[in-house]
Amino acid sequence: MPYTAEHKLKSKERILLSATELFCRFGFDKVSINQVMKLAKMTHGAFYAHFESKEALYKASFLQTLDGSTSGRLAKAPFSINHLTQLASNLLNLRALSEQSRPSPENILFNEIGSDSAEIRQLYEKSYLSILKILEKRITALCKLKKLSLARNQATIADRSRVILASLVGAVAIAKSIQSEEERCRILSAAQDQILIMLGVVEFSSDLTTID
User: What DSSP character marks residue 2?
Assistant: First the structure.
């Protein structure tokens, strides 16, 4: 007896959910189809009824994550200083998955640096541009509210956003390869301090354990 359309849809959603969890924690190269299907509690053979390749699954997972997170973030207005500093303090991929509110495009930037896959690099760029746009909108809104003293010139804000994003991704990339928890926290704390100084926000602590 053939499966119903509803059953097929639910099966695909289970695969996507499992894949998103694993991809966001470990990245594309370190996740196998077997791992995804095991987490989804389905057979390996069932995978190809829904996706033609691991790359196709990754793309579907990424687009779903991007769509959900972007709409949620851009709905938060006006943006607060705390929203902005959370980009530096949360550093999602260094926390247990259970502590994350949801997967986000930041995971792509943290996990897929220097990928050899043209398709993954294309998704990486899309993720980068998405986060850059969000960051620019946050900084622009805070400037209009006079909570930041930066020049309101859009080109200046765009360049400042690029530097902030590069600092965040670089700090996470290094911290992920350091075994010492204390040194990881120092790297992330120093990066946050410099970002806040760059923004002219000096009254916020860089203690990563106290910022929600």
Answer: P
CA-to-CA distance for 158 and 137, rounded, in angstroms? 9
Q: How far is CA 96 from CA 17, 50, 70, 143, 187, in A?
A: 17, 29, 22, 33, 18
Q: What does the domain layout of the chain look like in residue ranges?
A: 64-199
Tokens standing for residue 100: 């994350």
CB distance 110 to 176 below 8 Å? yes
Residue range 105-143, pLDDT digits in tens: 777 887 888 888 888 899 899 888 988 888 888 888 888
Q: For residue 126, give both structure tokens.
A: 């899309």
Alpha-carbon distance of 69 to 103, in angstroms, equals 8
Which pTM value belongs to this model? 0.74
Q: Which of 148, 197, 190 is nearest to 168 (CA)?
A: 190
- Dist. CA 22–CA 204, nearest whole Å: 33
Q: How many residues does the chain have?
A: 212
| pLDDT tens digits, 151-172 | 778 898 899 889 988 988 888 8
